[in-house]
């Protein structure tokens, strides 16, 4: 699938992959920071942003999408950075194509299956009748019945767009709903990536815990951890300077 993506900078290639419900804007800060020294590709995952909609959202298929961009741009090898779901896609790529990945950075996600922690969000989004929607505030009010955190609602509402007086979700909500069981699962490859890996976690997040240590070590034996204090799952947005510095320092070594 031909994904929407942006490319900037010069140097060794680094590919950035955002998380569930997001788009390439989520990683703009790290993209700008890295573009001073690297060729940075920042993409919209299928069913997100301006990339095409489809029924299949397996991790294998999404990994192949990224490999297609690398092939198109002539990247024999590249660095990978992924946040949340994007981290799982990045891990899938490294496990399936280890010789092409120079290094891997995974932001606040582990190679394991999670519980259905986004079900309430998907249900809340599905209850909004966009065909009869009169404005963004009406959608926010509807989401607020289920989602207390204003920042989460604002993040989701970035995907609410208007065209010819008709509101629509830019992401493929039905596709996300239909594929949600696989999206919260672990990367599907049974391979191993022995290259350098950095797992960055938020101190206040429960996405990467001590319970995940063995699974990480089994698939990524050279992985090393770093915790950003005082941050949750959105660590790259909460403390961008520290996050960007950790990424830059790691890439410079590899």
Provide key terms for this protein.
7-stranded mixed sheet; 9 strands; two-stranded antiparallel ribbon; alpha/beta; 37% helix; Rossmann fold; 254 residues
What would CATH call the architecture of the largest domain?
Answer: 3-Layer(aba) Sandwich
Strand content: 15-25%
End-to-end Cα distance: 30 Å
Order of helices and strands: EEHEHEHEHHHEEHEHEHH
What is the CATH level 1 assignment of the largest domain? Alpha Beta
Mean pLDDT: 96
When the domains are counted, the total is: 2
Q: Largest sheet, order of strands side by side?
A: 1-3-2-4-5-8-9
Give the uncertain stretches in residue-range form: none
Protein described:
The protein has 254 residues and is of the alpha/beta class. It has ten helices and nine strands. The protein has helices spanning 28-34, 59-73, 85-96, 119-126, 136-144, 150-157, 173-183, 213-219, 235-238, 240-253, and strands at residues 5-8, 13-17, 39-43, 78-83, 101-107, 160-163, 166-169, 197-202, 223-228. The strands form two sheets. It has a seven-stranded mixed beta sheet with strand order 1-3-2-4-5-8-9, with helices on both faces. A two-stranded antiparallel sheet has the order 6-7. α1 (28-34) crosses α10, α2 packs across α3 (85-96) and α5 packs across α6. The protein is globular and about 50 Å long. The protein starts with a strand and ends with a helix. The mean pLDDT is 96.
């Amino acid at each position: 699938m031909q994904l929407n993506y942006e490319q900037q900078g010069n140097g060794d290639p680094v590919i950035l992959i955002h998380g569930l419900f997001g788009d390439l804007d989520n990683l703009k800060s790290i993209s700008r920071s890295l573009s001073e020294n690297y060729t940075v590709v920042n993409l919209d995952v299928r069913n997100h942003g301006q990339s095409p909609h489809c029924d299949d959202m397996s991790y294998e298929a999404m990994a192949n999408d990224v490999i297609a961009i690398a092939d198109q741009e002539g990247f024999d090898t590249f660095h990978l950075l992924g946040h949340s779901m994007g981290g799982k896609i990045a891990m899938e790529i490294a496990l399936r194509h280890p010789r092409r990945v120079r290094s891997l950075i995974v932001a606040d996600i582990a190679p394991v299956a999670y519980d259905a922690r986004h079900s309430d969000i998907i249900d809340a989004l599905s209850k909004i009748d966009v065909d009869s929607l009169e404005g963004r505030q009406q959608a926010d009010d509807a989401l607020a019945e289920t989602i207390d955190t204003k920042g989460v609602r604002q993040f989701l509402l970035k995907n609410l767009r208007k065209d010819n007086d008709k509101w629509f979700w830019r992401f493929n909500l039905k596709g996300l709903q239909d594929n949600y069981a696989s999206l919260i699962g672990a990367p599907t490859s049974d391979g191993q990536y022995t290259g350098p890996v950095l797992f960055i976690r938020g101190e206040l997040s429960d996405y990467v815990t001590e319970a995940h240590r063995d699974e990480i070590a089994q698939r990524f034996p050279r992985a090393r951890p770093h915790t950003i204090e005082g941050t949750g799952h959105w660590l790259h947005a909460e403390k961008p300077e520290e996050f960007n510095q950790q990424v830059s320092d790691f890439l410079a070594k590899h």
